[in-house]
Specification:
The complex is a heterodimer of chains A (329) and B (560). Chain A has 329 residues and is an alpha/beta fold. Chain A is built from twelve helices and twelve strands. Chain A is 40% helix and 19% strand. In chain A, strands 1, 2, 3, 4, 5, 6, 7, 8, 9, 10, 11 and 12 form a twelve-stranded mixed β-sheet that branches. Chain A is globular, with a radius of gyration of 21 Å. The N terminus of chain A is likely disordered. In chain B, helix 7 packs antiparallel against helix 10. The longest helix of chain B is centred in the middle third of the chain and has 35 residues. Chain B starts with a helix and ends in a 6-residue tail after the last helix. About 1% of the residues of chain B have low confidence. At the A-B interface, strand 2, helix 4, helix 5, strand 7 and helix 8 of A face helix 12, helix 19 and helix 24 of B.
Chain lengths: 329, 560
Amino acid sequence: MKKFLVVALCLAVVPCAYGADMAKAKAEGKANFYANITAVEPIMEAFKVSQGVEGIYTRISTSKYLSTVITEFEAGKLAADVLQGPLPILQTLKDNGVLVPYRSPSAAGYPDWARADDTIVQFGIEYVAPIYNKELVKAADVPKTYMDLADPRWKDKIVMPNPSTHATTISWLVGLKEMKIFASDDEWMKFVKGLAANRPMFVASFGPSPAPVESGEKLIAISMPKYIITHAPAPLDWARVGTILGSPRGIAIAARAPHPEAAKVFMDYWLSGAAMKLLADKVGEYVLTPGVFPPIDGISGAKVLPIRELSDDEIKSWGEEFRKIFEGV
Amino acid sequence: MRSRKLTLTPFLIVIVGLLTVCPVLMLVLGSFSRGFGAFGQFTLEKYAAAYTDPAFADILVNTLIFTVGSAMVATALALFLAYMNTRTDIPFKFLFGVISIIPMMVPHILFAVSWLLLLNPSNGILNRLIMQLFGLENSPFNIYTLPGMILVEGLLDLPIAYLIIAPAMSAFDVSLEESSKVCGASTLKTLARVTLPVLRPAILASAILVIVRSLASFAVPSIIGMPGRKYVLSTHIYRTISTGFSADYGKAAAIGMSALAASIVLIYLYRYLTSESSRYVTISSRGFKPALIELKGARYPLFAIVGTLSFVLIVLPVIVLFYTSMLPYVMVPGERAFQLMSWKNWVEVLKDPISLLALKNSVFLGVAGATLGILLSIFVSYVIVKVRTVGSGILESLSFLSFSFPGIVIGVGFMWFFVRTPLYATIWALLIGYIATYLPYGIRPLTSAFIQIHSNLEESSRVCGGSPWYTMRRIVIPLLIPGIISGWILMATMFVRELTLSVVLSRPGSEVLAVQILRYAEDGLWGRLSALGIIMIFFSSTLVIAASLLGKKLTRMRVM
């Protein structure tokens, strides 16, 4: 009984200690949200309507994210209340004291690994898979395994982010090895070299990768299935190549946030089922809220796994390795 | 008079120095500092890492070919178009003048994408058309090559060259050519022996400015060069920054020092080559008479050539943009494409509050920024051309300082600087950053114009009792109108579509058009991107036409 009372007290007190004060949040009026995720305007609008607090979205590209946030933080001018980004970026920010702990009650149903950190909650996976032009690629020719992408029939017909620089692509390629998607490391290397031999066209990131496939300039993109939603009615579909891998996406509250209560309210809303459903439905994101999937044929049954967080040094070293393989430098 | 000139020079050095040295100083400190974004702990390891890269030699060769090639294309085309538009009686001149500067108003990302749609080897529209017409099996052109990059960059920089060469060409005293012809020289010989040598400062200014600009250019090297695996200095810097999550801007700045060093050498080369400025004076107190050359029988054939050239090189990519803006996704022309056409992208862009705010901010920055920038440029150009002391050389170098740094790096320099001031995250930071970086756009046309004004004019005014300000207002400025208008147009159109600084300095409330366009590009929403791009072109064109009409009213000289 005593133990039960202690546990019950803890359960009652902990949410109060971390929970958001709605009245204060409304008085603060707005929450500044720095993010590298795209097309989240529907969530910002829904947040304002449902919570009465304005969400101000500032988009910062991955390459400028750390330099911008750390420069502003060190100068005492960080305007962000809530920060979203790839896990390694948020981890670096945490190490630099830019983030503060906050356990949102909205994350309660998330997998344990996604909320193991007291500061950063992982809410989604930046899932990577081949997408193709379904009007130009016959059903029989659609790749069924990753190794099919190394088939010489796709020479000069693939587009992908540059695997010597694009961090998420580097992590994805390494993830395929580490998650044992191939029978052995040799098989994996055979795939990497085969893909390189097909001379894929390089673009800066996943964003520009669907356009050449839509227009028919290329037939397959190493990209994200979410573009099937955001680029509809483009003739895109994704290749069912087995387990899908991707980098986890995280969210956290800024230390010395200008609007601390609004930040908590925003975080709670962002992690709620309603917001995550919007993110899945409107943006095609793969989210970690149980039972919520993007409306893409076959995704709800797919096995989607987060890859290991690579350190900056590892990314640079693997980038150099892939540069040798893909560009012969 | 001399003492006033001597006071003006240090005053301008302080102003321009404050504008341009601060961000560059931040980058220099960063390039010699250990760690990420932190100053202190002196080290040379970033330079060592940057310059021992085995690929660096190839990158330098590509950069040399790309920049010199772009300068040749832009300057040759500008010379031809400017000659036709300012010196001959070719029909529809005003229209050609506007067409020559259209690339200035088009966001570079969009212009490059248009050319991809026209000339990619898989299904480029022009390639397909030529293959069908001539029964070819393979595409005749591949845009993903160095010549492809040179063509597109040359066209994008054509307005810079045109707006420098056209005022000089329009201010050309035709009596020099007449004297040559009286002495028996043919038209071609006169062009080669009289016209072009007199225009040397403008031609050199144009070529050097295009080289410096293409050194810092990122859109064409990234959109056309990177897919073709042709890397130049700016894309090499991008790769350095974008590998991993903790971008090493110090190392990027170390690489950027090469571009800065090259730019400084080019500026001094230019000054050396134009050191005897009196040789290029064509507007003196006597006999100045701009006149038109009658093309007679060649009028319509030359009109056809200029028209076709303008259409294929400049109008066609803009048509492609309009076509893309009407489609739900990128597709080649065909029955399905025409069936799916709608105004949806336009409606979405015009309903988007951030796009509308960005439009308002960009127009403000274009008008206010260009006006302030050109005012500063008049004084700086005056000191550079007319004073010509060591101080004026320093001033000229300072004016190029932040301009010659690759844009993706200088933006961070400005951020590191502005974050230490109350201006950070305001539209004023953008305004100051724009003027500081693009000062050469105002200075170049004005120095070309100043060089051609003989000091006899100022001396005559002074002898008649005119004060320096009176002389400037009544004699010099009216003769400078073509240069002022050109500089204003260059700055205004540049500011309306500026991306590299804006992407770092823009925050909620200070959004600008180019940043909004970049957002659409990152989402791969080419339809909305094209619609907003055309809106941008419309506003820039309005500014250009208004400035040109004002210029025409103020002077009889033809700039456009």
